[in-house]
Design goal:
This protein has six helices and five strands; from the N terminus they run βααββαβααβα. With 165 residues, the chain is α+β, with helices and mostly antiparallel strands. A hairpin with a 2-residue loop joins strand 2 and strand 3.
């Protein structure tokens, strides 16, 4: 027989899912079924918790204790940048390989960097800002109408001032 289930034990499960949509319960079941949770109910809870991120692929952290799942959204840098572009939610089944050609203000990039600071490997905030600008480059958007790499070069040269914290 398997060991007795401890009700006070905390299990953490990370999953990638599309925001605002109920994912396939077949992908949820092997992860949370053995923990005594209903995949359908947890799928509905995830869809409710990720309503603001409609149409974006984001990571969700499930903290399970005493057969209750607490859902927390762990946004990635690219998801935060695409959200800052304020694009209308898209239907991922109809629109493929979308180009994100909008422009984001530099102040928004700094605020995204502050959100991502704890997950960054940079020593200071300017390094985190440069990481976010690199992500903006790969997403395909511009920063105040300029290419992200030009802004990175200006930060290196000292033309653009990044707040210390």
């Amino acid at each position: 027989m398997p060991p007795k289930f401890d009700p006070n034990e905390i299990k953490v499960v990370y999953m990638r899912c599309t925001g605002g949509e109920v994912g396939a319960t077949s992908s949820l079941a092997p992860k949370i079924g053995p923990l005594g949770l209903s995949p359908k109910k947890v799928g509905d809870d995830i869809a409710k918790a990720t309503g603001d991120w409609k149409g974006l692929r984001i990571t969700v952290k499930l903290t399970i204790q005493n057969r209750q799942a607490a859902i927390e959204v762990v946004p990635s840098a690219s998801a935060l940048i695409i959200k800052a572009l304020k694009e209308p939610p898209r239907d991922r089944k109809k629109q493929k390989n979308i180009k994100h050609s909008g422009s984001v203000a530099f102040d928004e990039i700094v605020s995204i960097a502050r959100v991502m600071r704890h997950r960054s490997l940079a020593r200071d905030l300017s390094g985190t800002v440069r990481e976010i600008l690199g992500t903006a480059q790969s997403v395909g958007c511009t920063i105040d109408g300029r290419l992200p790499h030009d802004v990175i070069d200006d930060i290196h040269a000292g033309k653009v001032e990044v707040p210390s914290e």
